[in-house]
């Protein structure tokens, strides 16, 4: 998400946003210049500074966007998690699993449209806000822990919690690394499409295969 935002602002200000050159000039612009000890020969840093793109505007706008994005995502997700989490003994565990997948499908669908048509940042905020209304990934984790509590006991419960936390750590780190490597050479349509497909599969599984762990629901 942050990489997409930075590239959009790079393009907006006429800077190089190609995959092969992304952040190269930014890294060079934030590096301390090497002192020129030999007055007869200009240093390479001095020569480069004449053609150095100014990334201050990009960094400022990206920081402002990330602040807004955090707010529009945090508040709806917090309200949804509190309301549904506190009533999951009444409504059951499956809604806590189903709703976030619906939000993910809406999120990735809107993201594909934004990327394809280069829509404004407002649509990114709207997409993230809608996804957060459905509870986001925090609600999935809450549902998973509720299922573990219902279906295990004793030492088996401890092992199940450890396994769930390990898997959660892995699925947060591994895809981020893989997508980061992919985006160095390619664009966003493919990873967004893969994430959308996985969300659809998850929703179908939650709807038709995953049983409810509370008998009276």
From TrEMBL:
Listed GO CC annotations: membrane
Cell compartment(s), UniProt: Membrane
Domain of life: Eukaryota
Species this chain originates from: Adineta steineri
InterPro entries: MFS_trans_sf (IPR036259)
Annotated membrane topology: Multi-pass membrane protein
Protein name, as recorded: Major facilitator superfamily (MFS) profile domain-containing protein
Transmembrane segments: 97-117, 123-148, 160-182, 188-208
Main location: membrane
Assigned keywords, A-Z: Membrane, Transmembrane, Transmembrane helix
GO molecular function, one term: transmembrane transporter activity
């Amino acid at each position: 998400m942050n990489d997409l935002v930075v590239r959009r602002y790079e393009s907006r200000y006429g800077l190089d946003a190609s995959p092969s050159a992304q952040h190269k000039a930014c890294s060079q612009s934030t590096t301390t210049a090497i002192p020129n000890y030999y007055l007869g020969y200009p240093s390479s840093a001095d020569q480069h500074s004449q053609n150095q793109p100014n990334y201050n505007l990009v960094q400022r706008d990206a920081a402002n966007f990330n602040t807004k994005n955090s707010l529009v995502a945090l508040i709806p997700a917090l309200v949804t998690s509190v309301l549904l989490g506190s009533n999951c003994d009444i409504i059951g565990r499956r809604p806590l699993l189903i709703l976030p997948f619906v939000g993910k499908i809406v999120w990735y669908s809107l993201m594909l449209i934004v990327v394809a048509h280069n829509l404004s940042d407002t649509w990114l905020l709207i997409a993230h806000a809608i996804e957060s209304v459905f509870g986001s990934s925090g609600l999935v984790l809450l549902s998973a822990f509720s299922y573990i509590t219902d279906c295990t006991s004793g030492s088996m419960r401890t092992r199940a919690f450890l396994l769930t936390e390990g898997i959660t750590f892995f699925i947060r780190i591994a895809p981020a690394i893989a997508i980061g490597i992919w985006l160095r050479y390619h664009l966003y349509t493919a990873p967004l499409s893969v994430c959308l497909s996985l969300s659809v599969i998850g929703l179908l599984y939650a709807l038709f295969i995953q049983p409810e762990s509370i008998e009276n629901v």
